[in-house]
Every structure is written in structure tokens, then in C-alpha cells.
Amino acid sequence: MKAQACIWPYPLLALLSLGICFGDSIKIAGHTLDKVVISDTANDYIIRNPVDGSVQKVFKKRADVGAVAYSHDRDKLLEEWRRKQQEQATREDEEVRSREKSDENQVSNGVRIDTKERRPVSYEAEEEQGQNLRGARTSPQMPEQNKALDSIRAGLNSSAEHAGDHNEHSPIDPDLLKAAERGDANAQRALGLCYARGEGASRDDPQAAKWFRKAAEQGDAGAQRCLGGCYALGRGVALDKAEAVKWYRRAADQGDAEAQSLLESTVIAAAQEKETVDVSELQRLADRGLAHAAMLLGDCHADGRGVPQDAAEAVTWYKKAAEQGDVDAQCKLAACYSEGAGVEQDLTEAGKWYRKAAEQGNADAQFLFGFLYEYGVGLPKDETEAAKWFWKAAQQGHTAGQRCLADCFANGVGVPEDSTEAVKWYSQAAGQGDLVAQRKLGLCYLHGIGIPTDEEEGLERLRRAAAQGDAEAQCELGSCYYAGKVVEQDYEEAAKWFQKAAEQGHGFAQFSLSTCYLIGQGVPQDLAESDKWLKLSRRTVEVEKLSVEKLKRTLSRQELHEVLKQDK
Q: Which helix (H) or strand (E) holds 108?
């Protein structure tokens, strides 16, 4: 007879580690029950009760065990198992119905309290379960701010855990109300929580805020934390982050750890969203060693938010955060060294900090670090290293990294030339809206590079990029119409696209447009206009030559931005 695996929800695994099961398995209430469980210990064979693990019988011979496998004991064990499973299922159903009934009166304004677990449930959790909520919802927030708001909701709603249990199905205790009206701070806080949760009365946020304030003004830390939560969420009072920070600070100064956590969340979220921020609180967090707070404080100094604009001070804080491993600070510090903002320009130091951020997996830093290697800016030129870092960024979905990696494969720069691989990465970048990749993918389709020729698809991709303002695509499209390649020859359409590209400073388009005006193709003949565009085209060529040399000497933010937009 074939042995089968035993599955038991009891602490018998150690005792049954040598156990085997004889006979077929039976499915009951979704569980697998083997007819007989046997443990082989030395020369003894033991049959155990599947329900409680107790020893049923000890045999000296395996043949005896086989006989018992089909004895009447099996039916008794199965019947006991069925009964226990049914009892458990009934209890679980009753608990679910009880919770659902209790929760019906607990939903409003984006926060629900699970009365069994006493935990706040945010909108995000409700929406994941596909449930509808009543009341006003908060406006969409960034991920960091969502975390902060969830934390604040938790702080406001979980505060009642130690304030005494009030039966939500019973009216508010008259003695509690009298004590609160006499000025008892504990009673005032507890009463505020009743109104905040709708326990003993309909939920009433203004009343909750009123009683929290009374207790908070008497120095009750829990009430101060709750009042801070009211201001942070705009519950019962006007939304006011500064007031929230004030009350969280008062509670935190009394040693309220939860208020300290909420204070940090609120300050950090406000700074990240570039809202009005209490710089003194941000600096206090930075002085305590919170790296991200130091980075955000650097942003405040760089932008002049809450403090006078001071690039040097920004660098100071960026460096403190960067040295603690904050990846955003490392990128910003690298940019400061790159362009000499607040610190003497040092491209080698810029490369050092981009490397640190890149090695932590930051896709932007990986791309920029590869860019430095490709052009030899602040680092020895190394196309293999450039391709390596482009690949790392591309793997994380970095659009420019994907396009640059495609360029590497298309031209055999740092990697073996592989047009099929180039098309793959152009496709991914184009799918994310990169116009240069869109145009290059169109050219691949037009000329059958790395993919079967498809002129219609290629032309469509060129049109998409051109329509969205890519000057190179506009010039390519103009050339197609001018020469009658892929499309019927149309000088007017050609001149239209040359004009669009020329106005963006595209040198070849400027020269082509000059030719159109000289001959009168697609536009009225105009020698003055022709001469104008010819001069502009020559100037553009000279500027392009100079820009490459200048790039090797400096890497300002604006230049970097322009270079990243250009075709390589």
C-alpha cells in the first residue's frame, strides 16, 4: 500500500517525523484527513488519534497495524473530526456576522474602527476590499503623504485604546459627561474619543475637537495628540498642518512616542510636497540624525522656503544626509558639485556621489553615472562601464536609460552590436513616451533594422514623434515628403515639417528650408528668407560643435537637461 503525506494542525510533527499513513485520504471541510496515522518508533507501531494526537494503540508487528487500519475505530475518529470542524465553522460564521453588524455604524469620513481589533482602517484598505465609504474623502496625495496621513489617522483613532472601554451600543455615561463639564481632562479626552468614534452618540467631529481642545489646553498629552490629528486631517476643524505640528510637538515634549512619530510624518510629508513647512521642526529632526529630514532641509535652503535662499547651506545639509546614505541627497549633492552650486565645481566629486547613489539602486543615478562614463565627464571615458550602468537603469524601467542602452546596441558602443536588442529597448522606451526612441524605432521599421521592414508602421511612429515636437522626427518626415520616400512626394508637406524642425534649431532642417525658399518648392520663392535660414543653419552647426567641447569642461543642470533631450 502506498504511503501518503500527513497533514495535521497539531504540535505532533516531532513525534510523527517518522510517521507514515496507510489507506486513502478523505476530504472533510476542505481538510485532508488520513484514515490512520502510524508512527514507527524502534520496533513499536503506534496509532494516534488524528484529533488530539493521543495514542490509540501500540503494536509490535506491522501486520497487526494493517488489520486495524480498517477497524471500527476509524469511523469514531472521523465522526469526532467532523463534529469539531462543524463547531469551528459555526463559531467563525457567528464572529463574521457579529463584526459586519458592528462595523455598519463605524464607517464615515474615510476612517473606520474595527471594533474587535480596535484598529483604524484607512480609505486605501477599504478600497482594496471594494467597499463603499460614506462621508467626504481626502484629495489624492503622493505616496509619502499617504503614509503620513494613514499614520495620523492611526494616531487619532487608536488613542482610545487606553482611555477606557465605552460600549458603542450604549449612550454616553452621564457621569463621564458631568466629569468632563467639571473640567476633568481625562474625562474630556474620553468624551472627545466617544464623539470621534461615534461611541454612545452619533459621530460628531466638531464636538470631538472641542473636547480634545479642552483637555489639550490643560496639558493632557493624549488629547494634544488627538487635536493634532484633527488639524492634520481637517476633522472637526479647518485643515491646518502648522496647528497639527504645534499640538504634536506639545504632546511629544511630554514623552508621547506616538505623537513624536506623527510629528515626524507630518513635517516630512509637508516638506516633500513643498508645502509651508516649519523649518525649525525640520532642523530639529535633522539634528537628531534623521537623514531624509536633513535632505529636505537642504531643499528648503536651496529653494528659499521658510529660510533665506542659500546654496552653500543647502550643500551642507545635502552632504550630512548623503553621508548617512540618503540616496536622494547623494544625487542632489552630485548635481551641486557638477554645476558648482553652493560649492566649488568638482566633476570628480560629482561622479563619486552619483556612484554611491547608483550602487544603492537609484535608477536616475545609474543613468547619469553611465552618462558621465560615456562622455568622460569627471571620469575616464569608458563605454563598457557606460553601457553597464545604462543597462542597470533600463532594467528598472528608466526611460532614458532604455533609449541609451538601445543606442549602445545599435552602434556597438560598450557592447557587441545587436540591432535586434536595440529594437527591443527602443520599443520599451517608446512605450513609455520617449520621443527619440519613438523616432528611432520608426527608422528601424522603415529600413528593416533589427526587425522586418514595415514602412507603414515606421511612418506612423515618425508622425507620432514629429507631432509631439521631436525636431529630428520632423526633419526626417520632411525628408520623406521631399524625396517621395515611403509617401507620395509633397513639397508643401515637406516644407511644413522642415519649418517646424528649423524653428527648434535643427541645423539640417534650417538648411533644407533655405533650399525650399531658394527654389520655391512648397513655399513661395523668397531669397531673403532663404538667406536667413542658411545663416541660421551655419550658426547652428558652429554652436553644436562648441557645445560638445563645452560639455567636456562643465555639466550644468541646464546643459545636462538639453543634452539628455538630444539624439546621440
A: strand 107-108
Return the percent helix, strand and coil in the chain, to nearest 5.
Answer: 60, 5, 30
- Structural domain boundaries in the chain: 20-100, 143-276, 488-568
For every residue of 489-528, DSSP letters joined together read: --HHHHHHHHHHHHTTT-HHHHHHHHHHHHHTSSS---HH
Residue range 126-141: mean pLDDT, rounded? 30
pLDDT by residue (tens digit) across 201-253? 889 999 999 999 999 999 999 999 999 999 989 999 999 888 998 999 999 99
pLDDT, tens digit (0-9, with 9 covering 90-100), for 316-362: 999 999 999 999 999 999 999 988 999 999 999 999 999 999 999 99
Phi then psi for 13, rounded to 5 degrees?
A: -60, -40
pTM over 0.85, yes/no: no
Q: Distance between CA 42 and CA 303 in Å, rounded?
A: 78
Full DSSP string of 152-189: HHHHHHGGGGGS----TTSPPPHHHHHHHHHT-HHHHH
Cell of 549: 567641447
From its phi and psi, is residue 325 left (phi > 0), alpha (psi between -120 and 50) or beta? left
Nearest CA among 322, 291, 297 for reference residue 310: 297
Q: Which CATH class is domain 143-276?
A: mainly alpha
* DSSP track, 391-440: HHHHHTT-HHHHHHHHHHHHHTSSS---HHHHHHHHHHHHHTT-HHHHHH
Residue whose C-alpha cell reads 459627561 in the numeric block: 177
* pLDDT tens per residue across span 155-201: 455 443 433 344 444 688 888 889 999 999 999 999 999 999 888 88
Question: Which phi and psi (to 5°) does residue 141 adopt?
Answer: -125, 165
